[in-house]
Design goal:
392 residues, alpha+beta, five-stranded mixed β-sheet, 13 helices, 66% helix, disordered N terminus, disordered C terminus
Amino acid sequence: MNDDETSVGLGRPPATARQAGIKLLWIGIWLAFMSAPVKDLADGNHTRWATALGVLGLAVFVGAYLVLVFRHTSKARDPFRVRASLAFLGSLALVLALTFGTPWLVLFVYVAVSAGATMPLRTARWLIPVVTVVMVGVGATLEDPRATVTALVFPALLGGFAMTGVRQLVRTTIELRQARATVAQLAANEERLRLARDLHDLLGHSLSLITLKSELAGRMLPDRPELAAAQVADIEQVSRQALVDVRSAVTGYRRPTLPGELAGARTALAAAGVDADVPADIPDGLPEKAEEVLAWGLREAVTNVVRHSGAHRCTVTLAPRQTLDGRVLELTVADDGRGGAGTTPGNGLTGLTERLASVDGTLTTRATQPRSGKGFTMVLSVPFESGLGSAE
């Protein structure tokens, strides 16, 4: 037998008829305390018509109690209906107890339990004692009231307040389950955003390089087939590497390195005919996460230079700097192209800003030549305490 088909998690509504039956069985176990009114009817203490009405009234009471507790313990779908059902149970218990006598006072215990199971604590904490007081008051008008007080007062109070705890536990469990589902959804959304950023950074750079080399090969084909063949070979190599990068990004294992991106920047800028000044080394001790963010930033910046700037020269610098907030490592990419005035940040810069935020870094952009508005400079800054410490 499959445990999933039979077990019902706390606060989880039954998904199958079998689970509903099991939950109903657990609730119905407590109907064993109905033995007093059942015995009263079975002993023939009343007329035939009274006995028939007693059986009908008891059946209606039990049915209303089961429906109320079964449906509204985990969540009160309709507060008005819950209050109306409780009022009906209380009224029916009062009528049956006054009509048939002391054995039927046990119905008030079920009214108290229902109040604890379905009503908010601020309401249940006064409603349960009120139900108990009514039970004692009705019992005082009947024979043998002392037995009523000793046998039923404490079950009514304890059962009612115990069910308030059960109700709170069930609803807290539901809230925790919903919170867990929300966290899982947020994590999935964040992973989708990460994958979108990675694919944009990977394919944008690689496809730009492929486009440039394809144009070069096209111009060389009529007169210089050997050089065109070399460009086609480069295109094949870049395509294969792009495929490897995409596969690695999808599996979550790819981590770009700053030295590799610096080498790639020199290649991409040279292929685009841009005079490049790119450093060959990086400072020691750069944290792995900060290096990864700077590597992505360098790739995005160089891709923008190649695709959009129309620049003739590009300078990349990587240097530590002391600021009021502490020591930082700055990566600067400056070109002399048409500049970024009047443009809005695209997906690449937006994703880059999010990456930098994860390492307490910052991104600033400005015109390389402020007076003329020409050129575009991107500055990425990340904390670099350990790196400077090791350098000194």
